[in-house]
Amino acid sequence: MSWVENFHKIKAIMDYHFTENKKLEREFQQLVVRENNILREANNTDYYVVDFEYQDGDSRFDLIALRWDSTSQDRKNPDKCRLAIIEMKYGDSSLKENSGLVEHIKDVEEFLSDPGRVDEFKKEMLNVFDQKRKLGLISFSKGGNDNIVSSIKDKTEFIVLLAGHKPASSILETEISGIVEMQNADLKFATASFMGYGLYNSSMLSLDEFKKTLKKQ
User: Fold this and answer.
1) Which residues are CB-contacts of 215 (< 8 A; sequence separation ≥ 6)?
2) What angle do CA 12, 66, 206 make, to 5 degrees?
């Protein structure tokens, strides 16, 4: 209970810290979390964010989400859930900082190549998701949802979420040109359902679809 009682204080301390040490990607990560987990339309999106700034050894991921499609039939079937690792980039300049998208994909491929590590990762994320449900940090419909996600069998998704891209910039196209299909994950590129950060499976593009979209800009 002490965590719950002091949550607002911890949040205030973090907010103050980031006013002095600005990290734009962190701010937009929090917007993604709010829109898919807490706000009014959260129950209608297809992804719940389980964790962010996750680190396991040398592997570090911006966001981890549980894909649970928002149709009434799927919400009654917790056996169809998948995990998604999300890489978020804000602004074209961020594509050149540290390692680019190609390097991130290599890191994710290496992480997911170890079956034992992946199994423990899935169990950990399911435990965190369950904790957030109990704490009321996940928004379902008014009637709630008693269906417990106990296992994840399908391949993990790796989603690239780009915000603040300038269409006239060539940086993104250069980065994308070096990317190939992944072996250990389904590679997807998130696009908006009009404006906003709600994550919907129908708005996810494959690598080929995303390349074609870039060429039209």
Assistant:
1) none
2) 115
pLDDT digit string, tens, across residues 55-112: 998 899 999 999 999 998 999 999 889 999 999 998 888 887 666 788 899 999 999 9
CATH code: domain 2-215 is: 3.40.91
Task: Indicate the residue type of 14.
Answer: M
Q: What string of DSSP letters covers 157-188?
A: EEEEEEES--TT-SHHHHHHHT----SSSEEE
Rounded CA gap, 34 and 86, in Å? 15
Question: 114: how many CB neighbours lie within 10 A of its CB?
Answer: 12
Q: Where are the domains of the chain?
A: 2-215
Taking the C-alpha atoms of residue 200 and residue 39, their distance in angstroms, rounded to an integer, is: 15
Please, are residues 155 and 73 in contact by the beta-carbon 8 Å criterion?
Answer: no
